[in-house]
Amino acid sequence: MNLILLSTIYLLIQGRLCLRKSRLHKHFYISKPFLNLKGYVTENEGFSLSELEEHHKIRHSHKHTTCGGYIQWPVKKIATVEGDLVLGGLMMVHEREDTCTCGQVMPQGGIQALEAMLFTLDQLNQAEVKVLPGISLGAHILDDCDKDTYGLEMAVDFIKGSISNIDGAEYHCNKTQVRKVISGVVGAASSVTSIQVANLLRLFKIPQVSFFSTSPELSNKQRFEYFSRTIPSDHHQVKAMVDIVIRMGWSYISIIYEESNYGIKAFEVLEDLLAKNKICIAVKEKLVKDSGVANISVYDNIVQKLQTQPRARGCIIFGSDQEVAELMKAVRRCNATGHFTWIGSDGWSARSVVTENNEAEIEGTLSVQPQANPVKGFKEYFLSLSVENNSRNPWFIEFWEHQFKCRVPNSPPTPYNDFRACFGNETLTEENTRFEDQLQFVSDAVMAFAYAIRDLHAHVCRKPGLCEAMKPTKGSELLKYLHNVSFTGLSGDKFHFDENGDGPARYNIIHYKQVSQGKYQWVRVGEYLEGILNLDDNQIQFKLGESKRPESVCSLPCAEGQAMKYVEKESCCWHCFNCSQYQIRAPDDLTQCISCPMGELPNFQHIKCIPIPEEYMQADSGWAIGAMAFSSTGVLITLFVFGVFIKHNTTPVVRASGRELSYTLLAGIMMCYSVTYALILKPTDIVCGVQRFGTGFCFTVVYAALLTKTNRISRIFKAGKHSAKRPNFISPRSQLIICTGLVGVQVLINVIWMIISPPRAIHHYRTREDNLLACTSHIDASYMIAFTYPILLIIICTVYAVLTRKIPEAFNESKHIGFTMYTTCVIWLAFVPLYFSTANHVAMRITSMSVTISLSATVTLACLFSPKLYIILIRPERNVRQSMMPMRYSAINKSSVTTGSGSMMAAVVVTAATCDQNQKIQKAVSPVDNTTLELGKEMVELKDTSTQTSPASSTNNINGCSLDNLGKMNNNCNINGPVVPAQIIDMAL
After folding, report:
1. Contact 785, 742 (CB under 8 A)
2. Rounded to whole angstroms, how far apart are CA atoms 501 and 232?
3. Helices (H) and strands (E) in the chain, counts
């Protein structure tokens, strides 16, 4: 069935060709569409002059005057090289023309590419050590005029040999012509033509290797199984283009792409990559290709649309050279020269047809070109060619005429060779010849077939020469070896196909710039290898004398501290607005402003939040210095009092003041002063714990000692009014235990408080611009928990001070304690409102607390210890036993003790007079007073034996007051103040 189908296709093709010839012989009328596609005359058909004239009349009658009128055009020509195996070649020898099938000759991409194929065949066939032992490679090269329809028609020649060998039959008009099987096809150049030809060659299993076709669509092996290429896919080229756009810093560009597989497929990849990199497309326009309607207005409209987005100065052009050349002319007509910067594809950049007369419009272009090195020996070979020695290239005369703008004698006429006659001395030189940069891909395509045939020959024939198994070569077998070739080409580069049958992804980045005034050239400025762009920015110059890169953005980046508000339906266009005073632009969302957290403020640019410096009580601040000076003075005074008391520890004044509680009181006062130093330290969790514990504890020690004292005095004098029995718990040891118990309550409160709410140093933000480092207790006023118990002690002490206010001052400290309590209450009544009113000024709050604590300690120190220091230091003569008692009682030493039942005072006075008369006193008192005497005995034992006592007196007269037999004073006794029994006095002292 396949053979029948292929035979039928070939018969149809051949039938149409024979029918066309017969119609030309009979001067049949041929329609315009048929002429557009089929209206050419071959050299070897043997037409008569009348037939040719008629043919050109028909073409001229259908407005083909631009194609030369009566000149036969196009003329099918074939470049032939004999060989054992033949490779087909499909070159774009001529340019594409909209009104004609073919345009004028293409020097670089056409003639030079064809000659590169011939040169490579020569190298393979003439090498001393042949790649193909005993086998020569031939060629059958055709021109596709860079047109897919015309190229497909030319490709029919490549399948004739395959069809003619089916079942030994030949189907063609000329029975004498021998058809050779084409082993493989090199070409075509354009992706559009390659796609059409690949679909045809796939039916006949003929491998195809293109050298310039770069469309990503051709990498699809399910559709193009027999297609390969030595040039990399545009998929890599598009990636390189996007990387260049990113490197330029552009975010808003336009795209112009060819309306063909080459352009459309590249645009699809380009669109995806740009979107992934957040680059927006301002304008996207198609370049019409091969439709015949691309007139001046079409190109002008494209440029005018580009001008509607003037901020999109970067533009990617993915197209072919002829269309881009017309576009550049439109740029000049629309006065847009120099406004746009082009990113060019390999289809048009570095082509003279584009740059010629368009230098100013193309200046600054960056282009991606597949990396290729010169084919070694080709330049010398090509420069040695002339019309005399190059007869195998049937289009070389046209090239020669185009190159030197002259007419070779006896050359066939073309629509483009109306020149003067050549002088015959024209020669190709390096100065007048510009070489195509990518001829390596043509040479590598021929080399790939050669090495594939070599490997197939080694496997099938295994001896030099062409064996029967390779007559003809099977395309399916050759394809397997073709995909696995690996060699070093004539350029010196190693070559291999990737998994998609594409060449290695190697690109040069070239730049078209004005190297000097009026002189332009393409300069290599970088490369793109394996997905990595290397670009030399110093070589890039968009305008002569200007190194600044053009901007291609819809909206300029917002200033620091500004956020973006996108324009509706535009992802690259926005308006900028300022963030507020305490906001910065969100680092992960440029459209949002976010507030800085508490304790941080925006920097000057409003791009990041910076911590506010911590504020806390500094040791060198005025507040701290004042508080520490006050406390240090108190510490020194307290130490002085400690020293005096220790030095005079056994004197009556010290003993009478209650040494144990006095030392406890002094220790508490010392702690009160020392708390100031803890309060001004930099807050930490430990410091906060010390502050919380110390502030309440020091007060508790002071007022627990005072409370113990006032309570002892109160109980002693209260008990003395009712009985002579000594109260319980008035000994020094008992007093210390009571004081310790009172302090223990505060310790328990602190422990529970710290467990429930551990002390912490936190940052307090009074205002948005504050960052105060302070203890939590300073912020929430929870220090009042620590002060609650000491305040309670103060209140109780004050109550006791009031109760004991009438006790003679000579006997005790009650009045001094009372004054201390009254003053302390006044201080704390002033402190509490001050503490709560300074919540927003922590330094003042800490200072006021420190001063209040120190002031309370100072009041206690001054009121309780200054009288004692006065006696000890200034009036040491009063530091005796008698001075501790009122003057009216000190005169008792002049009286005697009566016998019988004496009073309590007489007994105590006698007891106080001497420690050796206990036995006598016991005989003189009644049995009822035994208890009192025993108590007096105990009191005597507590006194210092060194204290001087007055001699006993037998009289009952004390300072003019007499005692009756019951020990009572008579009514004539004149005593200022209440009469205090001596027993009570001793206990109080």
Report:
1. no
2. 9
3. 31, 28
